[in-house]
Design goal:
Layout (H helix, E strand, L loop, with lengths): L12 H6 L4 H18 L3 E4 L3 E10 L5 E11 L4 E4 L11 H9 L3 E2 L3 E4 L7 H18 L4
Antiparallel strand pairs: 1-2, 2-3, 3-4, 4-6, 5-6
Helix pairs in contact: 2-4, 3-4
Length: 145
C-alpha cells in the first residue's frame, strides 16, 4: 500500500508561521489561515514540514491508490504562496470558477496549485469564493463515511 510522504503532524502552526520571518509574509499567512478556517470550519494543521491544511478527505482512485490529504491548504514559500485547492482547478458546469479566476488578480496556475505572491495582488472576496468552491467540490466528490 502507498504510504504518503506528507502527513498531518502535531507541530504548531503558529510557530511555523512565525519562522517565516518577514512581517508581511506572516500577516498574509495569518489572513489565509483565517479565510481557510472560515471556509472549512476547521482549524489549521501542519502537514509535513511546510503545508498548512484545513480538514481532510479520503480519496480512492480506480487504480486502487488511496489516502488522506488536506481538503484545502497552502504552503508559504520564499517566492510565493502555493494554495492547494481542487486538483487541476475543477471547473464548475457554469464556468463560475473560470470567471472567478479572471477576476482574482495577479496569480499563476500549476497542476494543482494556485500561486500568488502576496495577498495585496488579489481580491480576497474572490479568493475566498474559490476556496469555497474547491472545498464544496471535494466534499461532494469524496463524502466522509
Amino acid at each position: 500500500m502507498y504510504d504518503p510522504k506528507t502527513k498531518q503532524t502535531d507541530a504548531s502552526v503558529d510557530a511555523f508561521v512565525q519562522k517565516l520571518g518577514d512581517e508581511k509574509k506572516i500577516a498574509d499567512a495569518n489572513k489565509i489561515i483565517e479565510l481557510m478556517s472560515r471556509v472549512t470550519g476547521h482549524p489549521p494543521k501542519l502537514w509535513g514540514g511546510s503545508i498548512i491544511g484545513f480538514d481532510t478527505y479520503h480519496y480512492k482512485y480506480e487504480s486502487g491508490h488511496e489516502g488522506d490529504t488536506v481538503l484545502i491548504g497552502f504552503a508559504p514559500r520564499k517566492q510565493n504562496f502555493s494554495l492547494y485547492l481542487a486538483s487541476g482547478f475543477i471547473m464548475t458546469e457554469d464556468k463560475s470558477y473560470e470567471a472567478l479566476l479572471a477576476k482574482l488578480g495577479k496569480h499563476k496556475l500549476g497542476k494543482g496549485c494556485l500561486y500568488i505572491n502576496k495577498l495585496a495582488d488579489v481580491d480576497l472576496a474572490v479568493l475566498e469564493k474559490l476556496m469555497k468552491i474547491s472545498a464544496d467540490f471535494l466534499r461532494k466528490k469524496y463524502p466522509k463515511k
